[in-house]
């Protein structure tokens, strides 16, 4: 089984944490020794993401291991760090990741925002995924506008020599699917030339079944 995957999004608020939590829950339900890792969290909401993972892992690891870098302001990491007069400690990030890969067979790493969110000077989320040596899972919205955002993300990933494991479309709004939602399911993978691993429905109904399918395709 793959030791890890880097989960990124086409934008902030597309549901990276939701998808990561679903995958973590499903893997552990299957008996896989899995962990989730949020290297950098900005703002209270970001820290809450790591707390969700800690809960799902029954607090097997300290919160500061699952989320080694926490910045108070809900901004891009490089901006928040500058305003808070702090330096992003990459040694701490890689050290915590190494610890998790020692104890867990699969580690799900959630990035901050999208691939070109700046972490430090001339260093972006995509660089972190590359340095961790992980394939990328792209989470995108199901609705209108996602073709552009997803295609841009895939092309950037490939330009930076990242392996794209696939795309997950997340239904962030619910309700009856319109023509955009219906056609995106076919058009996104066709245009991006990257497999669509699944569509996560809005709410809890059907989420477990969809996640099981995604897990099968990702991890076998």
What would you say this structure looks like, in words?
- The chain contains nine helices and ten strands.
- It has 220 residues and is an alpha/beta fold.
- The protein has a single domain (4-219), classed as 3-Layer(aba) Sandwich (Rossmann fold).
- A six-stranded parallel sheet has the order 2-5-1-8-9-10, with helices on both faces. The protein has a two-stranded parallel ribbon with strand order 3-4. Strands 6-7 form a two-stranded antiparallel ribbon.
- Helix 1 (16-29) packs parallel to helix 2 and helix 1 (16-29) packs across helix 9 (207-219).
- The termini are close together.
Give a brief description.
This protein has 220 residues and is α/β, with parallel strands linked by helices. The protein is built from 9 helices and 10 strands.
Q: Unreliable runs, pLDDT <50, ≥5 residues?
A: none
Question: What order do the helices and strands follow?
Answer: EHEEHHEHHEEEHEHEHEH
In the CATH hierarchy, the third-tier topology is known as Rossmann fold
- Strand line-up across the major sheet: 2-5-1-8-9-10
Reported CATH architecture: 3-Layer(aba) Sandwich
Helix content: 40-55%
Number of domains: 1
Category from helices, strands and their pairing: alpha/beta
Number of helices: 9
Total beta strand runs: 10
Strand content: 15-25%
Largest sheet: 6 strands, parallel
The shape is globular
N-C termini distance: 7 Å
Arithmetic mean of pLDDT:
95
CATH superfamily: P-loop containing nucleotide triphosphate hydrolases
Q: Determine and state the CATH class.
A: Alpha Beta
